[in-house]
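<tokenise_the_fold>
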Amino acid sequence: MVVSVVVTNRCNYSCGYCDRWDGRGEQMAPEELAAYLDEMAAMGTRRVIFTGGEPLVRKDLLERLDQAVALGMKVQLNTNGVLVPRFLERLGALASMMVSIDGDLPTHDRVRGPGAYDAAAEAIRVMRRAHPHVRVRISATMSSESLGAEDALLDLARELGVTVFFQPAEHRQLGGEGSNALAPPTARYRDAIDHLLLEKRRGAPIQNSASALAYLRGWPDAPALPCAGAKLFCRLDHDARVMICGRMGEYEESHSARDGGFRRAFLSLHEAKCPTCWCASRVEVNQAFALRPDALLGLATAAT
């Protein structure tokens, strides 16, 4: 099982398509999160993804990283990269890291703020030098601001020796209910996916499987996928709610881990009834769940 853990709703950036930056709402206390990690390990969880917000602004994050590793779970960190040099020595315990870069320097800094691109690229460089065993990737959000910057990202990935994982920006802000002004226009977005599929066939450093990209091309109108949620993956939100995914259309279900623990909350989840799937990482798992060979291979590679 893979569990995505939103360790905080705070971030040192305030990107236009994301509402997880100002710390609103209740955050799990250190002892709470520690107890939930113990339960996850006891249930056979293989991988934990620390995400946010920006996970590295959480004061006990490195303690929770060491705990998860000691429990036998592999840990992935999703980060904007700014704080990576400060905590570099301790980050060698990671199995993988996703660093957000949305396009070339002007594009990325326009979305996230001045200096963001250089900080993210430097985070990748120092991690690869200090901890070559940690699998580092770029996570690229495809928004109205970044469409057309795919080739620049692939060139950067080649330079840094990493791959790029592409994710469409949703029509609502990530972590919120407000509309997303940076949602990509559908026609331009699908042209960009067509280009990525072509580059994937040419051997470009694209982490997404071809079958997952083909499915994502249909977003936001693609039909629902057979979902492995509540079987192979789930999400623990910053306020201790357990759910299949962070955005499920009109179908929303969550159970608080504070009411009897993480295991009870997870086992209370029902089969997903989402109208479509926009989350690229979930699409990969669901395509593998449907026995798509390239997605199975990609998932196996990502897990190593």
